[in-house]
Amino acid sequence: CQCHRIININIFLTKYCKHAVQCLLLDNVMESRLLGLVEHIKEHALFLFTHRRMAITGNDVTLQEIIPISYDFSSFVCPCTILGADTRVRLTFFNEKMECKLPFGSQTRLFLSEVNRAWCGKKAPKFDWLTKYQKNSKGLGSVPPIATSVGKITKTGNGQGTVKGEGRNELVRSSRHTVSNKAQMLTMPQFGLRDNLIKCELLKNEEAYTYIQNFNFFLGTYNVNGQTPRESLRPWLSATPQPPDFYCVGFQELDLSKEAFFFNDTPKEQEWMKAVSEGLHPDAKYALVKLVRLVGIMLLFYVKKEHAKHISEVEAEAVGTGIMGRMGNKGAVAVRFQFHNSDLCVVNSHLAAHIEEYERRNQDYKDICSRMLFRQQDPTLPPLTILKHSIVLWLGDLNYRISELDVDYVKDLILKKDFETLHNYDQLKRQMDEETVFVGFMEGEIDFQPTYKYDTGSDYWDTSEKCRVPAWCDRILWRGKNIVQQYYQSHMTLRTSDHKPVSSLLEIGIKVVNEEAYKKTFEDIVRSLDKLENECIPSVSVSQSEFHFKDVKFMQHRSETLKLHNDGQVPCQFEFIQKLDEPAYCKPWLTANPAKGFLAQASIDIDLEVFVNRSTAPELNSGQQQLEDILVLHLERGKDYFISITGSYLPSCFGSSIHTLCQMREPIQEMPLEMIHRLVTSKRSQALDIPKEIWMMVDHLYRNASKQEDLFQQPGLRSEFEVIRDCLDTGTLDSLPGSNHSVAESLLLFLDALPDPVVPFSVYQECLDCSSNIGQCKKIISLLPQCHKNVFNYLTAFLRELLKNSAYNRLDVNILATIFSALLVRPSTKQDQMEKRKTREFFQHFLIQDSH
Amino acid sequence: MAKQYDVLFRLLLLGDSGVGKTCLLCRFTDNEFHPSHISTIGVDFKMKTLEIDGIKVRTQIWDTAGQERYQTITKQYYRRAQGIFLVYDITSERSFQHIMKWASDIDEYAPDRVQKVLVGNKSDEQEKRQVATEQGNKLAKAYGMDFFETSACTNHNITESFTRLAELVLQANKKDLEALRVSINDKLSLADLEEEERVCGSHDDVQKACWC
């Protein structure tokens, strides 16, 4: 807005002047200046203008100085004692120093942040573009030679301490950048939630740590009719023997000039502020916390020095309700603040004039209430309205008149001091009684004569043509608990205006914090929240944390149930998680079903299944591995539980090596475990030509199943396999039980489970390479270790024998080669189709050789 | 009103089974004591808010299974801790001897900057004492740790020892925390920073680059 004043100086400037503020230069005398931030090709400079009062055109302002924002520039925001007071800024450029005072508020904040941003973005300074302005500049400023050194940098954020030094400052600023990114990443909703919970709880328990202490608030309102102060305001402001704690002084019609109206700038502001400052009670020291003005409506807010530190969150706002419903000739200004633990809002309003316009005044009140919005410290919270405050003090020229009575009767009642009768005709009283305006507000009894309208400079009623009916235009109302009015009066001796000033002293009970009790309450809340949070950590109880699987056998399915019961207060997600350096959450012979899931309230059964197959059997047989594992059951955002699984495995010929089995005359389970483990690694000569288990199965089939239809193609029974396995492992029966198909399948399973196949992995590739060459194939077999060669020859002889009965058993070379090559000649890894064909070709040589 | 929370730390309780780790935690967070011993089978944790130097510190305290067979698994929790309590039982010489082993595991698996405090628990059972206070002191000194004899039963030195460890962690991380506090001046979690750190790379130089 002030920016517009620079309009005519130069088009260039309007184009590049980003922000402007009016400030007071704190030199020897206080002088008003306009300060503009000008940008051109990413370089910035501050332009300082002197100006006439009510500057309107370019002729009214004069460029005084240009301060390039270069390395030699610094701005220092002085820490302010009272939040909401004017901001003092010290500008330094080389050796020149300048101190100025910027009005408190969002515009100054914005301006300073823009200056700061300009400073942060400074480049190697050239500032050529400034030379043409320097000619116009009358002041001290001429752009000094290009500075290259890094100058001193001093900066504070909001008066919270100073950071000095060059490198350090760079560090801080750059950290600021990365950290704000980090802050976004760190957004943890539960943190915010917790803060809010604490705030809520503190508010709920406020009575526990606050007590009520009374403070005296002086409230005054004075419509000065555009006059300048000509008499002392002491009779109005200092009528009490004791100095009040606060002063809330409101003026209306401070300046009736067009300039004030259009540019919201008036010299009267300073004049009346000075008059008030001089009129304050002499027995105490006061600090001006806030001055807020909208055209002619001004509110001054002073506090006794010793209370200043208990004031916080000061915000000021203005709402115009004049012409077009927006302009500032009518409306209100307000200050809100926190004092100790109470929140207060003081409003000074000037409502619509004229006797018949009371509904317009009601409307103004409503507009002010709805449009006066105070920014909150936490930007995520919605703005505060006037009526959200627990204490509202409302003063001003409310302009409500006395109606239905003629002027002489009114004056007669006043003469008789029958204010009670008169008050019944007061529009404000009537409107409040009807609850159309100021609902919930109180006003003290009016025991003074109307304050409007007098002949200026006298105590005589208006003698002008209009001869207005006297009225109580100037009023003081309040809303809130613990407020007692000490007095409510007008001040007849002041004669500057056509109104008389009104004052009231309110004794207000303020919630003051007992630090000790507050600390205790706070700690209690934190403790109970910790407790709540701990109770809300997901938790389950497990039916058992140790499981033992006794005597697990090869290919035997075993299962136990782990019951999870949600004993926490929240639903939870569970999962068995991987341990460090392990490929899966459990050993390959174990599965948990389900391995993860969601547990709302009740319980869930998890099956822990143990199954030893051909890939896990060898190491268990040889004793290199035990049935031992610990599962880690993890609850999301919660605890971990360890579930121990142990078991004993009964060694089996299934999954044992040909080599080992050839050393065992006894059934495997009749041998001590240590003996088995020793045999695995021994190089001892073999006791048997082939494992007796192979002989038992093959011999059984040779004698009973040579003519069995679909041998090796029809599956056996699972239960019969188990008996056959036990029979082989324990030697309890002389002949194998079960059907031919079950024995045949057992043989296949046996071959499949061999840790090293009959044709060992080591020669697999060779077999593929010479699969078409009979001689080579035979040579490979002839070079196998003795026991492997024996088994191979034994099996092929048996298969050739079976082929002789192909009329009965319907087997042919192709079928047998396909089945047996896959078991006898297999790789340790996966096999493709081509390899499969070659192994079959390899094996076929041994089946057809003698058959013709 | 001042901001409520500034940092989050993870603290870990280590020591032989039965030295009273769970009881220490229970006493500290809930001010409760249950004399019967139920082995912790797994890893449990509780939250507690402390105020240190005007900073609200939220601590997440992890209670681990002490039994030997779980030790290979519990080791994987070390690397997430900023502070560790090494706990023994003053009535068990054996648990005191094992502190050396626990300490060497920490050296191997915990972060370099981890802060440690030695705690001799069950100080109320004087008649059964097997480890003299002086022995504890000496060991702590040798390792450069602070030492407390505590009793979860009588609530002796509980708050003191937990607060001390939190202080040490705060000091050790002060520089980094301050750099962050200056700018975001509210919530941040050291634990989360470390997660992030790992993303950035675990190198010291890289750390600096992305923290400051």
UniProtKB/TrEMBL annotation, chain A:
GO terms for biological process: cilium assembly; Kupffer's vesicle development; melanosome transport; phosphatidylinositol dephosphorylation; pronephric duct morphogenesis; response to epinephrine; signal transduction. Its EC number is 3.1.3.36. This is phosphoinositide 5-phosphatase. Keywords: Cytoplasmic vesicle, Endosome, Hydrolase, Lipid metabolism, Membrane. Signal peptide: none annotated. GO terms for molecular function: inositol-1,4,5-trisphosphate 5-phosphatase activity; phosphatidylinositol-4,5-bisphosphate 5-phosphatase activity. The lineage of its organism: Eukaryota, Metazoa, Chordata, Craniata, Vertebrata. It is an enzyme of class 3 (hydrolase). Belongs to the inositol 1,4,5-trisphosphate 5-phosphatase type II family. It is found in: Cytoplasmic vesicle, Phagosome membrane; Early endosome membrane. It comes from Electrophorus electricus (Electric eel). GO terms for cellular component: cytosol; early endosome membrane; phagocytic vesicle membrane. Residues 671-852 form the Rho-GAP domain.
From TrEMBL, chain B:
It catalyses: GTP + H2O = GDP + phosphate + H(+). Its main location: membrane. Transmembrane segments: none annotated. Keywords: Cell membrane, GTP-binding, Hydrolase, Lipoprotein, Magnesium, Membrane, Metal-binding, Methylation, Nucleotide-binding, Prenylation, Protein transport, Transport. Pfam families: Ras. The keyword Chloroplast does not apply. It is an enzyme of class 3 (hydrolase). PANTHER family: LD44762P. The GTP bound form of RAB15 interacts with REP15. Interacts (GTP-bound form) with MICAL1, MICAL3, MICALCL, EHBP1 and EHBP1L1. Belongs to the small GTPase superfamily. Rab family. This is Ras-related protein Rab-15.
